[in-house]
Amino acid sequence: MRRPAPVQLPRGRPRSFDTEAAVERAMNVFWSRGYHATALPDLLRATKLSRGSLYAAFGDKHSLFLRALDRYIAIALTRMDTELDHRSEPVDGLRAYLAGYVERNSGANGRRGCLLVATAMELAGRDVEVDRRIGNFFKAMEARVAEAFSRAKAAGQLADGVEPSSAARILVCFVEGLRVVGKTAPTRIISQATVDALLDRFIR
Amino acid sequence: MRRPAPVQLPRGRPRSFDTEAAVERAMNVFWSRGYHATALPDLLRATKLSRGSLYAAFGDKHSLFLRALDRYIAIALTRMDTELDHRSEPVDGLRAYLAGYVERNSGANGRRGCLLVATAMELAGRDVEVDRRIGNFFKAMEARVAEAFSRAKAAGQLADGVEPSSAARILVCFVEGLRVVGKTAPTRIISQATVDALLDRFIR
DNA sequence: CTATTTCAAGATCGATCGGTCCATATATTT
DNA sequence: AAATATATGGACCGATCGATCTTGAAATAG
């Protein structure tokens, strides 16, 4: 039997800010400006922390960035899991998934871009921690889309000759490319039509 | 009748370096490192110019970057024009075009990424000169691909229901997305198979 | 020759970078 | 009350940023 650990309360003044909220605010700054173009004062302003508090809580700019990136990835994967929920129709899930990209790619959202894509282009190949995260994310995303295509195929909803895993790779590349092109041409109607045209090539 | 202009030779020591070669060397640095992460010493080392010469010739870092970006764009469009040459079969052209992306997306080439995509993500929305160039490039690229699809359709080589202009938009997004995913997973065989699978959905 | 221009090399500039440190106030424990 | 821990705000650090300027040699013209 394990004796319940004596809950030793810490002595001093407790932390008075929400760490996760600070990470989220920092995430938004990195998202809008990119890693190199984000300066410490930007982060201090966004998190409303003093230099001392920020460094005590997160170590340094790079560590805070990784925390922000992890949060961004977690949000994206969670969203995908609801969009591609296995309890609903796989084709509906794929449509919802693509509709989400159209939405995030329109107007100001589109011009803001995608933290993952921006990070991949800015830091991948020069930062092993970033490499791992980006690579794993794309793999996870591809796996989820492939699973949806796989269920669609089992339900006889795919066009002849469509292979779920390669269709998933196509879709992943396509949506990431949407994010790139959307930086300068974030027109919702065209994005939606393009998405529909692509899905039409796969769906029976 | 116009009298031939008296060719007044300049007095001093003539320029002893090739401006365009310097732009190309600078382009390679921006390409490998990105705009913000490229420091003046990087450019001086690559161009083998002194600070004074570089500033006299190009004005400042930003202007030199635009020159480099223009060169990158010119190279890309010229290459497309030969790949999609209207004198050869449009489907062959599209295959050549995609094969080029597979090549540039493999191994070290892939890890280096694409200056246009990186610039779009890093600077678009915060630099009007960059915005214009990126937007025009994507438009020009899409137009060329659409023209190839259009010729393929006229030759009866497209699958039923494929519309050239939306197929072109799909392809452009796809190849730019390839560049993103290729930053961490530049595997030639998978890229080639994915490209083939996509084209199969369009070609009869 | 002199005048002119460009070259490389580097000193120098103010601004800003990421990061550390300190003084002081505050909030919580024992 | 005493001890402990965290908060803020700002001073401060060395390094580096992009950019300017100086110096003296080299290459061309008249």
Give the key terms:
2 domains, Arc Repressor Mutant, subunit A, 204 residues, mainly alpha, elongated, Tetracycline Repressor, domain 2, homodimer, 10 helices, DNA-binding
Poorly predicted runs of chain A are: none
* Gap between N and C termini of chain A: 60 Å
How many domain modules of chain A? 2
CATH architecture grouping of the largest domain in chain A: Orthogonal Bundle
What oligomeric state do these chains adopt? homodimer
CATH topology of the largest domain in chain A: Tetracycline Repressor, domain 2
Word description of this protein:
2 copies of one chain form a homodimer. Chain A contains 10 helices and no strands. In chain A, helix 1 crosses helix 2. The model of chain A has no long low-confidence stretch (mean pLDDT 95). Chains A and B meet through helix 7, helix 8, helix 9 and helix 10 of A and helix 7, helix 8, helix 9 and helix 10 of B.
Could you write a compact summary of the structure shown?
Chain A has helices at 19-33, 40-47, 51-58, 61-83, 90-104, 107-112, 115-123, 128-154, 164-181, 188-200.
Question: In terms of topology, how is this protein built?
Answer:
Two copies of one chain form a homodimer.
Chain A: H1 19-33, H2 40-47, H3 51-58, H4 61-83, H5 90-104, H6 107-112, H7 115-123, H8 128-154, H9 164-181, H10 188-200
The first copy, chain A, binds a DNA duplex (30 and 30 nucleotides) through residues 9-17, 39-41, 49-53, 55-56, 60-61.
